[in-house]
Amino acid sequence: MPLFALGFSFKPVFDAGGAVSTEGIGVWIAAILTLGIYSFLYKDNFFYKFSEYLFVGVSAGYTLVLTFHKYLKPSLIEPLQEYSRDFYHIITSSAAPVVNPWMLNWQTQLIDNKFGTQFHFIFWFSLKVFIFYIFPAILGLMMISRVIPNAAWLSRFPLATIVGYGSGIVIVTTLHASVLEQIKASFVSFAPLFHMKGLDWSIIAQSANDFLLVFGLCCAIIYFYFSAEHKGVILGPASHFGIWVLMITFGASFGYTVMARISLLIGRFQFLLSDWMQMVR
Amino acid sequence: MKAFFTIINTLDRRIIFLAMLIAVIIPLINPLALPVKITPNTTSAYNVIDKLNPGDRLLLSFDYDPASSPELQPMAKAVMTHCFRKDIKIIAVALWPQGPMMAKNAFESLSAEPEFKGKKYGVDFVNLGVQPSYVAVVKGMGDSIPGVFPTDFFGNKTLDFEIMKNIKNYRDIAAIFSLTTGSAGISTYVTIANAQHKSIVTGGCTAISSLEYYPYLQSGQLSGLVEGLKGASEYELKVGKPGLATSGMDVQAVVHMMLIFFILLANLSQAIVGKAK
Amino acid sequence: MDKMALFNGSLIVFFIVLFVLLIAIGQTLRTSLFLRRKLPLAFCFIMGVTMIFQFFIPPDNTLYKEIEDLSTKWIQIISSFALVIGLISLVTMNFNKITRKYEDWQYSAVLLAGFFITVFYGLRDGFEGVQFDFIFNYMYVPMQSTMFSLLAFFVASAAFRAFRARSREATLLLTAAVIVMLGRVELGSILWSYIPVVSTYFDVSDLAQWINKVFTTAGQRAILLGASLGYIAASFKILLGIERSYFGSEE
Q1: CATH number at residue B55
Q2: C149 to chain B: which residues are within 8 Å by CB?
Q3: CA dist list (Å): B237 to A257, B37, B80, B81, C177
Q4: Which of C25, C43, C90 is closest to A147 using CA atoms?
Q5: C34: which residues sit within 8 A by CB, 6+ positions away?
Q6: Are residues B131 and A270, on separate chains, in Cβ contact within 8 Å?
Q7: Which of C47, C174, C236 sits opposite A165 (nearest CB)?
Q8: Can you tell me the ipTM of this complex?
Q9: pLDDT mean across residues, chain C
Q10: CA neighbor of B72 nearest in space, from B241, B227, B252
Q11: Residue in A185, A211, A53 with CA at minimum distance from that of residue B217
């Protein structure tokens, strides 16, 4: 009651007409689950565990729905259906339209009797469907064999395929975008410094910043260079400055991390206070 | 005095939790309406979209999940508002499994507003959903976007949509805007779409990962970056539609101050109690 | 329509038969070193080299398009199956927990209930279903974002407990963090304006931006270069079969 005196009312479960409102119930469920998870801050308890397990269940359910509807259906099941339907139409010379462009091409070739014969068609069709769909599906099934102890080694084939694909791409793209381009961008130009008329402080500041950036970068790299001891006139002080640069980097990162974490908290309280308690508008 | 700092040194963490709670709730109930200063990174991201022509396609990549939605959902809405006002068509894709649902929610809430009543799904906006293995997706789109996404999120054929007419790959896309949390997202687009296909890549990210992209900003591989809740609030102000992010910045300011105070207090107490030992 | 159902049915039967066949083959040939080790490594090598090679073909070339198309389809299909394994083990594990009445088995029932309800509505209606939307928006979203927002409290407590200026480096770290935190919020600028002399020259937000533009960019670039080179080296090791931890524990 004193809460209501503060001037807010909870989200009603019934709408104006007196019927149960889906949104109202939803907001209440969401609020209860939210508070249940926050109760962990005091100590671990039933409400937290309940929400935690429910979350894992729902999230796994979401993954399965997504895997079926969005991954397997459009990239494996539907193409197989389409190909087979077209194949059936072409073979039986039915009047139904052929949808797949690749199959359409074959159909015109067969009709024009150009260089396609029934045998060629069946051969290329089988090969295409096998390479594009059946073979990766076999690899996928091999992946699932991981749950069966003695056949688990079969999963090495699909894993090798994925890992090989990833590695091949990483080698070229990372080398290009994250190494070469980054090194290229570190070659800053000090030419404006020599062409400025009088004392242009913005150019001087820019050049000083550029110099600090490159110098800091070199020192930080020296710090990461472990093949020689960080001693002597150059390596010693340079690696020391490198540590400083890295410390500033980590400090700034920590500041940003704090910021990000607080933002998430703000989002939840915006929900609790405005959607559920209807306190803030 | 020393007794006080000894207590500070051995404070139960639940008291800090309580202080956090109060610091979050009070500014939410009594907004301070602090101004927000717009940073150059947000301005350059804004300008990338502002320079596009009406009818251009923007690839908006929803690379986040509900966990980061307080930061990225307001950003997504602000960017979409900007695009819709300029009549830029949005092709939404996702590299994160939950991304398409976030895209769906953002479009539903925007198209319910009177200003965007005329915006139609399939004409002004399309949600192509998500595909597994983000490297393969970003790489595959360089060859064919409909090839990677044969259907939209709801199972309709991608090529049937008006917005997808004459859209083959990155060359037909005016710019890429990635809303990123974690590893899949901006860096994937920079390393593949920008490096290989010379696409203009810009984006927004959670504050936690934004510093990772500074090297790409300096080298020009990434054009502008909307950083975290602050960036989102800046973008909201840029499009003149303050929303959840802007009101959240008040809280952010108060909590930051409190945390800084705590850090200083903890250091002070350690200095005093430590010396006494 | 009838034919489609027949086709779908035979497709399912086909995949089940294929799976059983694969398992049988896997069980009988499990001692073959060639199949267990050499052939997968060859797969990995060929796949990787093809992908590297592909970057050196002009994008308009048909060969490029074919490789791109084929490899993307393969990876998409294989990855989709990979997701299923996690689900199978999650469900079987929790099912065992319930049937054997392990500690906290009641929660496993909650988990499975959440799983099957979501799957039921999701598979039935797709992503446009009202019930699926309800589950996502009023259960999934609040639960996940609340879980992650718990970290805010722990970050606060960590800042209080561990963030101490014990050495010169730690002081530098702390100072940078404080300046960045001040510089990102407007209240920081207001406080800064009370500092005499300095505040007339620059604002704390400018200072924070300068730190990020110069030092953080330098530090992050050093980390990026190091990590990228490591990443490339590791990829080469994988392609050449030197690194094969993805094979599992026995090798």
Answers
A1: 3.40.50
A2: 70
A3: 24, 10, 14, 12, 26
A4: C90
A5: none
A6: no
A7: C47
A8: 0.90
A9: 89
A10: B227
A11: A185
**Is residue B93 domain-shared with residue B21, that is, in the same domain?**
no
Which two structure tokens, joined as six digits, stand for C62?
A: 């048909």
Give A-chain residues touching C74 at CB under 8 angstroms.
135-136, 139, 161, 165
Same domain, residue pair B102 and B202: yes
Interface of A with C in 46-75 (CB under 8 A): 49-65, 67-72, 75
| Count of Cβ atoms closer than 10 Å to residue A148 Cβ | 15
Host domain of residue B122: 40-242
- Over the range A21-48, which residues count as b (16 or more CB within 10 Å of their CB) and which as e? beebebbbebbebbebbbebbeeeeebb
Say what the pTM is. 0.92
CB-nearest partner of B248 from A73, A261, A270? A270
Is residue B264 in some structural domain? yes
Q: Is residue B35 part of a domain?
A: no
Is B257 an interface residue toward C (CB < 8 Å)? yes
Contact assessment for residue B79 and residue B249, using Cβ atoms and an 8 Å cutoff: no
Delimit the domains of chain C by residue range.
166-251
Task: Report whether B254 contacts C165 (CB < 8 A).
Answer: no
Q: How many domains is chain B built from?
A: 2
Q: Is residue B269 assigned to a domain?
A: yes
- Residue A279 backbone zone (phi > 0: left; psi -120 to 50: alpha; other: beta): alpha
Comparing A92-96, A159-163, B49-53, C86-90, the range with the smallest average pLDDT is A92-96
Domain assignment present for residue B208? The answer is yes
E strands, chain A, in order: none
Q: What is the mean pLDDT of residues A167-184?
A: 92
Count CB neighbours of A110 within 10 A.
18
